[in-house]
Design goal:
CATH topology: Arginase, Chain A
Distance between the termini: 8 Å
Structural class: alpha/beta
Number of strands: 8
Keywords: Hydrolase
CATH architecture: 3-Layer(aba) Sandwich
Order of helices and strands: EHEHHHHEHEHEEHEHEH
Number of domains: 1
Helix content: 40-55%
InterPro entries: HDAC_classIV, HDACs, His_deacetylse_dom, His_deacetylse_dom_sf, Ureohydrolase_dom_sf
CATH class: Alpha Beta
Oligomer: single chain
Pfam families: Hist_deacetyl
Domain Histone deacetylase: 21-289
Family: Belongs to the histone deacetylase family.
CATH superfamily: Histone deacetylase domain
Strand order of the largest sheet: 2-1-3-8-7-4-5-6
Number of helices: 10
Strand content: 5-15%
Length: 300
């Protein structure tokens, strides 16, 4: 059975101006349940991740400031909203959701986290709505537990996975592949193992062609036995922050390319949802739900 990490705190309300993007964390599972793609038994509620697992990836002093809610005002501005107890617990549960999903993926082939994809968080910094890097923490956890030997992280959010790139810059067992807007946030990029910077306005055919070509390179270079996929839907033409021009059909085809490649290679796959900021919430939810629909068609 395909398992999906979700918790009520995922939709924790943020300060005015940040609440709209959080709606998707309620609406994605509701839509999937309503249409019959999933049943309640597909969902699991993660507990907060343990401190010792966090410290496999994040700097001890950074974690101490997070845990004590003592980040400076400047550091909190980098997050994009004030740090508080509920926000930290949300992040801890999201991270454990990705770890739990990795275990389920090892057993069944694929698993999801309705949230996650917090790829702007580096070893000792927060940024861009990201506090703890869920997929990086989980990758280090799998290596530490000897549950994987070589890992590929496929990041197709419109923003570069700068935190993920920094965390694994000296780790040869983890190969980072980021395909992102060149002139978009973050404006100071890190060096992934494979970066594909895109011009503003890149549309369906060019995007999918570049993905197919470079995904093959990533698999050849990485030789993974486990894959993480960050499936942000901020690549859509309707996205307020994305600057690309993909149709919803092309976004779905993007997911199909990644999922079919992992399925063909019999590689366990954990998927975190990443960003999505279209004006109409229905565009965000439907594009994300397409990823689940494809996985259920392929893996069940």
């Amino acid at each position: 059975m395909i398992k999906i990490a979700w918790h009520p705190l995922y939709a924790h309300p943020l300060p005015e101006g940040h609440r709209f993007p959080m709606l998707k964390y309620e609406l994605i599972p509701e839509q999937l349940l309503h249409e019959g793609t999933i049943e309640p038994s597909n969902l699991f509620n993660p507990e907060p991740v343990d401190e010792e697992i966090i410290l496999l990836t994040h700097d001890k002093n950074y974690w101490r400031e997070l845990k004590g809610l003592t980040l400076s005002a400047k550091e909190q501005r980098r997050i994009g909203f004030p740090l508080n107890t509920q926000l930290l617990e949300r992040e801890l549960r999201i991270t454990q959701g990705t770890i739990g999903g990795a275990h389920f993926a090892l057993a069944t082939g694929v698993a999801f986290n309705v949230a996650g994809g917090t790829h702007h968080s580096g070893s000792n910094w927060d940024e861009g709505f990201c506090i703890l890097n869920d997929q990086a923490i989980t990758a280090n956890y799998l290596l530490y537990k000897k549950l994987a030997k070589r890992i590929l992280i496929i990041d197709l959010d419109v923003h570069q996975g700068n935190g993920t790139a920094e965390i694994f810059q000296n780790e040869s067992r983890v190969y980072t592949f980021s395909m992102h807007g060149d002139k978009n946030f973050p404006f100071r990029k890190e060096l992934s193992d494979l970066d594909i910077p895109l011009d503003d306005g890149v549309a369906d055919l060019e995007y999918l062609s570049l993905l197919e070509k470079n995904l093959k390179i990533a698999f050849e270079k990485a030789q993974p036995d486990f894959v993480f996929y960050l499936s942000g839907v901020d690549v859509l033409s309707t996205d307020k922050l994305g600057k690309l021009a993909l149709s919803k059909a092309a976004c779905k085809e993007r997911d199909k390319i990644v999922l079919e490649a992992c399925k063909a290679k019999n590689l366990p796959l954990q998927i975190s949802m990443g960003g999505g900021y279209s004006t109409d919430i229905k565009d965000i939810v439907d594009a994300h739900c397409n990823t689940y629909r494809l996985a259920f068609d392929l893996f069940t």
